[in-house]
Structures are given as structure tokens and as C-alpha cells.
Write a sequence for this structure.
């Protein structure tokens, strides 16, 4: 049997107590205990307890600490069960206590993966430019898959995806970069795919953005002049005459410029003695 020698409050941890024990060899620190467990256990100074009873109390306190840690983690925002489990294990909590904490959280209504997934998708749709494929992947990383993920993703309808994709495509297509409209189109589509938009939405969004925008002939001409001048400087020391013209012509074509525009540039460049 071990006697409870002294009980003191922890200075920097409100609601927890230090339990000191005396096993006949003098007083020494035994363990920390949460206030709620202290009251429910009925221990007091001078009370004698068996080693088994003390060990059981220590285990209960460890489990309680794990549960409290989970509650604190949840106090900032909703979390998935996987997020909570990963966090607790990183905090070196015993796996058995982690499972018990998750069970208690669910029983008390603190966790609900379906509600979490729905809120997560709505927040991402309303506050980010991410496409549905990226958001679904993030859900999966948080332990949400299958029917729960499917149900949550219904909030991200194709109409919403297309609306968001068109805005992003417009930004890319209206950039002042000295690129052909065709190259801008390709880059806009690539950007949408990289952000997690479906290929069908990406293609339709770019087409819609182009159809809504008025053709900027001056910008396209300025772009072909800029790209063409760069190519002349690149190839003029390596080729001349017909070979030089063909190199420039094919390089500009690969960049998405029309043959009419390329021919117009080449005629201007020749008049200016650029080649």
C-alpha cells in the first residue's frame, strides 16, 4: 500500500494537481492528476491506496489528458477524425487513449466527418481558386473518401466550376505578356488543369473567355513583332536567306501565330533590314 503524502496545485497548469506519495521510504512526487479525476477518485492526504489502484488512476488521467488535448485542437476549427488522430499521435499520446478519445468525441458530437467535409468544400469553393480535383484530393488526405466525399463534392457543381474557371481564364488571356493568343489559350488551359479543374471545364472555360473577349489585333501584332525580333537575333548568326526565314517562320508558327501574321512580320522585318 502507498500513502498519499501531499496534494498541491500545479503553478502553471490550472485545474491540475501534483500527487506526492509515501511508500514508507519518505515523501516523493508520484504523478499529476486532473481536478475532475481528483474529485471523482476521492483521494485525499493520508489515504492509502494499492499500487494497482494508483496505476489505474494514472492511466485514466493519461486518457483524460489525451481527450482534453483533442478538444483543444478542435477549438480552433472543425477537424476530420484522421486529422485529430494524426495530431494526437504526433503529441506522443498512447494509441489506445487516442482511439478512446476519438470514440468519446464522436459520442459527444464533437466530430462528424460528413459535416466537416461539407464545410470544408464550401469554404474552399468560396475562398480559393482551386478546382474540384484538388479539393477532392485534399479531402482524401484528411481521411475523407467514398460516399462522404461524393456527397460533400456535390456542392461544387459544374456550373460553379465553370464560372470560377472562366474568371481565371480571363485573367490569363488578358495578360500583357508578348505571346500569341493561341499560346495564351494553351497556358490558360494548363493553368486550370494544374489548379484541379476538370479537362472539360478547362476547355469550355477558355473557349467562353475567348468568345466574350474582343480580338485585340494590335496586341497580337505587337506580340509577333516581339517574338520575331527575338528569333532574328537568335538565328541571324547561324543562318541566312531562305533558311533563316524558314527557321523564323516555323518557330513563330509553333508559338501559335497565324501564317498571315507571320508573313506580315517577315515583310516588315525585311523592310527594316533586320535580316
Amino acid at each position: 500500500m502507498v500513502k498519499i503524502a501531499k496534494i498541491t496545485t500545479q503553478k502553471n497548469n490550472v485545474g491540475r494537481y501534483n500527487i506526492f506519495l509515501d511508500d514508507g521510504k519518505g515523501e516523493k512526487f508520484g504523478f499529476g492528476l486532473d481536478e475532475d479525476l481528483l474529485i471523482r477518485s476521492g483521494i485525499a492526504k493520508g489515504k492509502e491506496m494499492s499500487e494497482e489502484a494508483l496505476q489505474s488512476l494514472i492511466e485514466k488521467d493519461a486518457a483524460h489528458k489525451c481527450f482534453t488535448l483533442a478538444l483543444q485542437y478542435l477549438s480552433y476549427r472543425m477537424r476530420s477524425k484522421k486529422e485529430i488522430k494524426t495530431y494526437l499521435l504526433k503529441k506522443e499520446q498512447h494509441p489506445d487513449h487516442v482511439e478512446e478519445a476519438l470514440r468519446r468525441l464522436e459520442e459527444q458530437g464533437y466530430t462528424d466527418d460528413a459535416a466537416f467535409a461539407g464545410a470544408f468544400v464550401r469554404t474552399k469553393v468560396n475562398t480559393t481558386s482551386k478546382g474540384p480535383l484538388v479539393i477532392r484530393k485534399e479531402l482524401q488526405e484528411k481521411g475523407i473518401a467514398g460516399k462522404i466525399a461524393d456527397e460533400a463534392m456535390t456542392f461544387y457543381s459544374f456550373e460553379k466550376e465553370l464560372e470560377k474557371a472562366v474568371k481565371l481564364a480571363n485573367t490569363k488571356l488578358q495578360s500583357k505578356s508578348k505571346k500569341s493568343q493561341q499560346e495564351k489559350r494553351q497556358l490558360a488551359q494548363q493553368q486550370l488543369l494544374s489548379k484541379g479543374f476538370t479537362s472539360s471545364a478547362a476547355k469550355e472555360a477558355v473557349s467562353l473567355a475567348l468568345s466574350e473577349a474582343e480580338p485585340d489585333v494590335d496586341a497580337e501584332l505587337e506580340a509577333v513583332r516581339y517574338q520575331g525580333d527575338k528569333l532574328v537575333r537568335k538565328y541571324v548568326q547561324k543562318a541566312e536567306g531562305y533558311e533563316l526565314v524558314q527557321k523564323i517562320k516555323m518557330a513563330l508558327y509553333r508559338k501559335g501565330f497565324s501564317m498571315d501574321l507571320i508573313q506580315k512580320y517577315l515583310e516588315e522585318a525585311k523592310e527594316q533590314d533586320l535580316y
Q: What stands out?
A: The two ends are 102 Å apart (CA to CA). The mean pLDDT is 90. The first helix runs from residue 35 to 41. The CA atoms of residues 140 and 146 lie 9 Å apart.
